[in-house]
Amino acid sequence: MARILLAEDEAVLRMLVCDTLEDEGHEVDVARDGEEAIEKIRGNRYDLVILDNMMPRLSGLDVIAQARQWPGGGDLRILMLSAKDPHTDPETIAAAGADDFMSKPFSPLALARKVGDMLNG
């Protein structure tokens, strides 16, 4: 079982991801925007952070930039979720410091596999 932070502003997608990960036995904490994600990362230890890129107040890329500057922030495993957007291609996301990337839409099974790979690899 892993402790995962999901930062996603869309309620339906947030529920789908939480249900998928909880069915896999993980504990999931939720942030509804980038600033809430930063607060939770600062105050907790997570095995994995899953970030939507397009969120209110701070984008996923902004969250990564801030988190990577903190002591221990370089060790944080981050999976970025993003809809197709020319400004957030996988190369840009990797250069920003995400460990992996999934484009939306995605299947719950593919997400569960990706999370398992990131936690075990």
Strand order of the largest sheet: 2-1-3-4-5
Q: Radius of gyration over alpha carbons?
A: 13 Å
SSE topology string: EHEHEHEHEH
CA-to-CA gap between the ends?
Answer: 15 Å
The geometry reads as globular
- Runs in which pLDDT lies below 50 for 5 or more consecutive residues are none
How many distinct helices?
5
Largest sheet: 5 strands, parallel
Q: What proportion of the residues form beta strands (DSSP E)?
A: 15-25%
| Strands, total number | 5
Report the structural category: alpha/beta
> What fraction, in percent, of the residue positions are helical?
40-55%
Mean pLDDT score: 90
What does this entry look like structurally?
The chain has five helices and five strands. The chain has a five-stranded parallel β-sheet with strand order 2-1-3-4-5, with helices on both faces. The model has no long low-confidence stretch (mean pLDDT 90). Helix 1 crosses helix 5 (108-120) and helix 2 (34-43) packs parallel to helix 3 (60-69). With 121 residues, it is α/β, with parallel strands linked by helices. Strand 1, helix 1 (11-23) and strand 2 form a beta-alpha-beta unit. The chain has helices at residues 11-23, 34-43, 60-69, 90-96, 108-120, and strands at residues 3-7, 27-31, 48-52, 78-83, 100-104.
Strand-helix topology:
Blueprint: E1 3-7, H1 11-23, E2 27-31, H2 34-43, E3 48-52, H3 60-69, E4 78-83, H4 90-96, E5 100-104, H5 108-120
Parallel strand pairs: 1-2, 1-3, 3-4, 4-5
Summarize the structure.
By secondary structure, this protein is α/β, with parallel strands linked by helices.
